[in-house]
Specification:
By secondary structure, this protein is mainly alpha-helical. It is built from 6 helices and 2 strands; from the N terminus they run H-H-H-H-E-E-H-H. It has one domain (about 15-155): Winged helix-like DNA-binding domain superfamily/Winged helix DNA-binding domain (Arc Repressor Mutant, subunit A, Orthogonal Bundle), CATH 1.10.10.10.
Length: about 160
């Protein structure tokens, strides 16, 4: 029997399965988008916006970057990234310096204060998420474990 349950050997989904897939995709998109926004709101603070925090978190993971690489990562234009970096530099959270080999390029790194802000923001986000999971029933936790595994397999490409 095929995926669709047809006995003709076809592997094409039936119309009912196709509609179910469309509905499931729409629901997953809504849940993932809203949950992502909620998590981001728990990392942002009065000092930095969610997009600014995202830049800081990227730098914390990468160690350093260029403004153009940051703009690509954040899917913003170079002028927008220049403004974001200007605000972060003014707040003492990043530092920009000339590249040691190519003077035309700029390297961006976190300051100690920027590092502290990222770690504190992640802890706030993790604490909020842990508090939500703490309120889940054992069955809900099992379902979350299974859903997490499926989402990882379907949505996150393996690293080389």
């Amino acid at each position: 029997m095929s995926r669709s349950g047809a006995e003709d050997g076809s592997t094409e989904p039936s119309a009912a399965e196709g509609g179910e897939t469309v509905e499931l995709a729409a629901e997953l998109q809504r849940v993932l988008l809203v949950s992502s926004r909620i998590l981001r709101s728990h990392t942002a603070s009065e000092d930095v916006s969610a997009p600014q925090f995202s830049v800081l978190a990227y730098l914390q993971r990468a160690g350093e970057s260029t403004p153009s690489a940051l703009a690509d990562f954040e899917h913003v234009s170079p002028p927008v990234m220049t403004r974001i970096l200007g605000r972060l530099e003014q707040a003492g959270l990043v530092r920009r310096a000339a590249h040691p080999v190519d003077g035309r390029q700029v390297r961006v790194t976190l300051t100690e204060e920027g590092e502290r802000l990222v770690l504190a923001g992640r802890e706030r986000r993790h604490a909020w998420l842990r508090s939500r999971i703490d309120g889940a029933t054992p069955a809900q936790r099992d379902a979350l474990r299974g859903a997490s595994q499926v989402l990882r397999e379907l949505l996150i490409p393996p690293r080389d």
